[in-house]
């Protein structure tokens, strides 16, 4: 089995029948790891599919293989790629990485100015995040949106989070800030302003030439005057 056996696409309403299976596998995976994730209902996952805010992986025979969705916080200033899950039947073929790359690309398209963050205990996810440009950060650099932190209540480690004043927990926080990754673009004159812009540049160039000629003449005069007297 290889990665080419799967289609990794943006989920739509036609994939809603997979929602219940996806949610069940998320819960089972959390139990197996001995950690926790924010529990989601099939309706919640279905809504993400309808909104075009999730990615699904399907085997060529139509079997559900993996899933991940987008959440937004602080009025779209922060984005999280949540609920990454791979069907146990199809693990060890690189699906998690491929899905993560696809949902990251979708997040950048939909929210180009947003900071993308995640909380995870999984070393594999941390590695993928690092490849995408995420960096480890303190919890203070994440969203302060209370709705996000309410999602941690269903985690088995919630008491640890609260005992530390929500400053840290067992999860590692990682953040991708587009402002740190992309240098500001130089402003380009609009179509109607190009001629005017060129005229200004040409005028300045000629002005500098005249100044240089005058300075040159002034230097020659000074040299002649000082040598003579």
Share of residues in helices? 40-55%
* Rg calc: 28 Å
Give the second-level CATH assignment, the architecture of the largest domain.
3-Layer(aba) Sandwich
Q: What is the helix tally?
A: 8
The dominant shape is: globular
Assembly of the depicted chains: single chain
The amount of beta strand, in percent, is 15-25%
Could you spell the SSE succession in H and E letters? EHHEEEHEHEHHEHH
Q: What is the count of structural domains? A: 2
Q: What's the total number of strands?
A: 7
Give the class-level CATH name of the largest domain: Alpha Beta
Termini distance? 95 Å
InterPro entries: Acyl_CoA_acyltransferase
Organism: Solitalea agri
Protein name: GNAT family N-acetyltransferase
Structure summarized in a few sentences:
By secondary structure, the chain is an alpha+beta fold. The protein has helices at 19-33, 42-50, 95-110, 123-132, 146-150, 158-163, 178-181, 194-228; strands at residues 6-10, 54-59, 64-73, 78-86, 115-120, 135-137, 172-176. It has two domains: 3-181, 3-Layer(aba) Sandwich (Aminopeptidase); 191-228.
Describe the SSE topology.
Layout (H helix, E strand, L loop, with lengths): L5 E5 L8 H15 L8 H9 L3 E6 L4 E10 L4 E9 L8 H16 L4 E6 L2 H10 L2 E3 L8 H5 L7 H6 L8 E5 L1 H4 L12 H35 L1
Parallel strand pairs: 4-5
Antiparallel strand pairs: 1-2, 2-3, 3-4, 5-7, 6-7
